[in-house]
Amino acid sequence: MAEVCEASGANVAGLADVLGHDHRIGRHGMRPGLGFGGGCLPKDLAGFIDRADEPALAVAQALHDLGATVTVTDPKALDNARKLHPDLDYVEDPIAAVDDADLLLHLTEWHHFTTIDPKRLATRTTTPKVIDARSTLNTDQWREAGWMTRALGRP
């Protein structure tokens, strides 16, 4: 739905709010972002299970396969990620992950990623650009810190 909203100029957060008024759907889990968004139908659940081994690493690997230099950081999954995708670069420190980056991709919802000071990060990048694929960053705060921001499903 985020892509439909983007194409039409609508804000997916407004759509999620409207859909949340339907008592059969509710507002819980109505935050748009990358990947799976609910388990209403058996095929959705099967798709979720199939995708559980991928989430953000599939995006990182795809970018690497296209020729990008990709640096990955994650507070819990680095060891497993290294085993599954050994050709990606990994760092423990999320601040160091943006060193000389042309683009920051926010692909997970870990709390310490959403609370990082964007001013601190902006000075370490080549170009302060971020794509918030989880819709969890405060884009106003990031823009005030000099970042060009893009959040899925938002104008």
SSE diagram, text form:
Blueprint: H1 2-8, H2 12-20, H3 42-51, H4 55-65, E1 71-72, H5 78-84, E2 89-90, E3 104-106, H6 111-114, H7 118-122, E4 129-132, H8 139-144, E5 148-151
Parallel strand pairs: 1-2, 3-4, 4-5
Summarize this entry quickly.
This protein has 155 residues and is of the alpha/beta class.
Structure description:
The protein is built from 8 helices and 5 strands; from the N terminus they run ααααβαββααβαβ. With 155 residues, it is α/β, with parallel strands linked by helices. It has a 3-stranded parallel sheet with strand order 3-4-5. Strands 1-2 form a two-stranded parallel sheet. It is globular, with a radius of gyration of 17 Å.
Number of strands: 5
Number of helices: 8
The gross shape turns out to be globular
Task: Pick out the low-confidence regions.
Answer: none
- What portion of the residues fall into strands of 2 or more residues? 5-15%
Query: Helix proportion of residues, in percent?
Result: 25-40%
Structural class: alpha/beta
Give the neighbour order of strands across the main sheet.
Answer: 3-4-5
Largest sheet data: 3 strands, parallel
